[in-house]
Specification:
28% of the residues lie in helices and 34% in strands. With 87 residues, it is α+β, with helices and mostly antiparallel strands.
Length: 87
């Protein structure tokens, strides 16, 4: 492999690593797919309506558990979903 090919490969890896937000998680609730991070993100009411009560809630952080895994939803101060993390 040439140095140029290694450099291109490394650049792609770093670019993907630094842009992890492009690979944001989503939460499936029945037939609904909930995702956050854009201006069309659902608010707390929509998430509650589609997914039901969270298993744990602390302010603007909600946790849903399924299959031994937890999905953490973070809401902004105005109630918009802005982040989903799998744990």
């Amino acid at each position: 492999m040439t140095n140029k090919a290694r450099l291109i490969g490394a650049s792609i890896f770093v670019s993907i690593f630094l842009n992890q937000s492009a690979f944001a998680y989503a939460l499936r609730c029945g037939t609904h797919l909930i995702s956050g991070g854009d201006r069309d993100s659902p608010g707390k009411y929509e998430v509650l309506k589609r997914c039901g009560e969270p298993d744990f809630q602390s302010g603007n952080t909600w946790v849903y558990r399924s299959g031994g895994r937890a999905t953490v939803l973070s809401f902004s101060s105005n109630g918009q979903l802005y982040d989903i993390q799998k744990e």
